[in-house]
Amino acid sequence: MIFALSATGGTLLVFGSDAEALAHAEEVAGGWQFFDDAGAPLQLVTAGEHPRCFFVAPDTLYLRPGGSEATLGERLGEVKGVQGTAALDDVEAVRAHLAGR
């Protein structure tokens, strides 16, 4: 599971896979912070920035651990709305999910 928090609107998106999150990232022009299933920050990078990607197009997007941003748990106060699965459709459900990790 991958989470994406809008830097401007306070919307938190919940994706079932990296592929879904990356498809979203390709459609929008920045302004989103990504987090892994446990709420740790992820960096959105291109294959050209990834040390082990030799046989893919350099503009292919990847998510990798890292970044100095706060965790999703620390940023839940910024969330104004959640768009996700039925089990994770509000801030309290996301908070409970992160607490269980």
Keywords:
101 residues; alpha+beta
In short:
This protein is of the alpha+beta class.
The strand count comes to 6
Distance between the termini: 12 Å
Give average pLDDT, whole number: 83
- Characterize the overall form: globular
Strand order of the largest sheet: 5-4-3-1-2-6
Please, could you describe this protein's structure?
This protein is of the alpha+beta class and 101 residues long. It has one domain. The protein has three helices and six strands, in the order ββαβββαβα. It has a six-stranded mixed sheet with strand order 5-4-3-1-2-6, covered by helices on one side.
Topology:
Layout: E1 2-6, E2 11-15, H1 18-27, E3 32-35, E4 41-46, E5 61-65, H2 72-75, E6 81-83, H3 91-99
Parallel strand pairs: 2-6
Antiparallel strand pairs: 1-2, 1-3, 3-4, 4-5
